[in-house]
Amino acid sequence: MRRAFAWIFVLALVAALSGFFLFRVPAVQDALMRTAIGSMAATGHDDLFEADALRAVLCGTASPLPHPNYGKACVAVFAAGRFWVVDTGPGSWNRMGLLRIDPARIGAIFLTHFHSDHIGDLGEFNLNSWATGRKGPLDVYGPPGVERVVAGFNDAYALDKGYRVAHHGADFMPPEVGVLRAIPVPGPAEGLGPSVVLEAEGLRVTAFSVQHDPVTPAYGYRFDYRGRSIVVSGDTAKTEAMVEAAKGSDVLFHEAQANHIVEIIGERAAAAGRPRVTKLMGDIPSYHTSPVEAAEVANAAGVGLVVFYHLTPSPPFRLVETIFTRGVSDVRPEGWILGRDGLMVELPVGSDEIRTDWLD
Predict the structure, then answer these.
(1) Residue 205 · residue 197 · CB < 8 Å
(2) How many domains does the chain fold into?
(3) Using one digit for the tens of pLDDT, what is the confidence trace for 25-78?
(4) CA dist., res. 50 & res. 186, Å (int)
C-alpha cells in the first residue's frame, strides 16, 4: 500500500513539473493568453439591450468610505437599445469594463448631484465610450450647475484628448465627438415638480427633487419603459416627495446608510483620537436614509422590490450585511435586497415579474 501511494505521489509530482515547464514555453504562454484575452476582449451581455424588458445593473454600490471590491454610486438602466447611467462614482467605470458592457452603446448620463462620489468617473465614461466608437458628444443631464461640472471634466481631459487624436488620427477618434455636453434640468430645482427630461423610443426619464440639504438642488430619476418602471433615489433623507416619485414603480434603487454602524465608527474614531472622523460621522445621518426608512418609503409607495445601494458603510462580508439591514424585515418582510456591484434586475414587458441575477 505504501508503495502504491509513493507511485501516486511521484506521478502527481511529474505531472505538476511537466505543467510548470510547459508553461515556460513561449508558444504555450501565447496560446493561453490568446484564449484568455479573446474572452475578455469580446463585449458581453448583449441580451441586456433586448427590447423585451426594462433592466438595470448596479455598477457601484459603495459610499465614500473605502471598499476593496465595490465602485461608488452608479446605476445603469438598459432600455431602447442603449444604457443610461445614473451617477458615475469612482470605480464605476472599472465595474462596467469588467462586465464587458459595450461602451459605445451609452445613451446619456444623469447626475443626481455633484458630490465627488457621484461624479468621479465622468471623464472615464466619456473617454472609453468615445474610444470604442460613440457617435456624438456624451450628454450629461443634471441639476443647474451641471454646466460647470462638465466644463471642468472637459478641461481636465483636454490634453489627454489631444494626445489620443494625434496618436490614432482624427478620422478614428473625431475630437468633436470626444466631449461631454451639459444639459441642465432646472424644473424640479425651481419648485415646478417632476420634469420629463428625455423621451426616446418608448423610454421616459423623469427628474424629481430629493432632500440632501445643504446639497441643493439634488435629484432622483424615474425610468418608465413599456409599462415597467425603475426609480433611482440618489442621496436623500426620508421624505414624502420620495414616496410620491416612486409610487407604483416596480423597483426602487434607494441609498441606505446604517446609522447604528456609523455611530460606532464615530465612537471608535473618538477613542482613537481622530476628531475629524468623529465630526464627519456625526454630521452625515441628517441627509441620508437608513435601510429601515428606505423600506418604509418602498411600502408607502407600493414598490414591488426595493434594492439598497450606495451603502454607508459598505458591508465587507455577510455578517456585517445582517447587521447593516437590522430591522428591515420587521417593516418589510419580503421584497427587498441588499445590492452589490453586478446585481441585475430584469422587468419583462407585459408582466409584473421581477427577476434578479448576478452578472460577471
Answers:
(1) yes
(2) 1
(3) 677 667 766 776 666 566 678 889 999 999 999 999 999 988 889 999 999 999
(4) 32
